[in-house]
Amino acid sequence: MTHWNHRPLFVPDCDRLPATHAWAAADSDPPAAYPLREVMARVLTAKQREAVEGFFFEGFSQQALADRFGVTQQVVHKRIFGTRRNGKLVGGALGRLRKALDPDGDARGGDDD
């Protein structure tokens, strides 16, 4: 069985958010002006940040990251995507980034918490 350490990245330059996004119209210091990694450094824990960078920026699989960090694949998944507790999504880097970049929830058209 082949163990894939990397997966293809479809957007190689993820460091900046698009200026055409809805945030660009905001009057007060729009998050779109910040490099994505700066926002990540501000709102994510070190463990979440290394999981997100490894998965999305470097293209490692969750299992490869788990092997690197000495944890299970499920732990890596929870660091990135969170988990449901009592019907509510808790934790997870993507949820934190979503709230930091779009506090009103307009980008996804609804509340998924």
What can you tell me about this protein's structure?
The chain is mainly alpha-helical and 113 residues long. It has a domain at 31-101: Orthogonal Bundle (Arc Repressor Mutant, subunit A). Helix content is 41%, strand content 5%. It is built from five helices and two strands. A two-stranded antiparallel ribbon has the order 1-2. The radius of gyration is 15 Å and the shape is globular. Mean pLDDT is 76; it is low at 21-28 and 109-113.
Query: How many DSSP helices?
Result: 5
CATH architecture of the domain at 31-101: Orthogonal Bundle
Measured distance between first and last alpha carbons = 38 Å
The percent of residues in helical segments reads 40-55%
Spatial sequence of strands, sheet with the most strands: 1-2
Going by helix content, strand content and strand pairing, the class is mainly alpha
CATH topology of the domain at 31-101: Arc Repressor Mutant, subunit A
Overall number of strands: 2
Low-confidence stretches: 21-28, 109-113
Overall CATH class of the domain at 31-101: Mainly Alpha
- Which sheet architecture does the biggest sheet show? 2 strands, antiparallel
β-strand amount: 5-15%
The coarse overall form would be globular
Listing every helix as H and every strand as E from the N terminus to the C terminus, the arrangement reads: HHHHEEH
For the CA atoms, what is the radius of gyration? Answer: 15 Å
- In round numbers, the mean pLDDT is 76
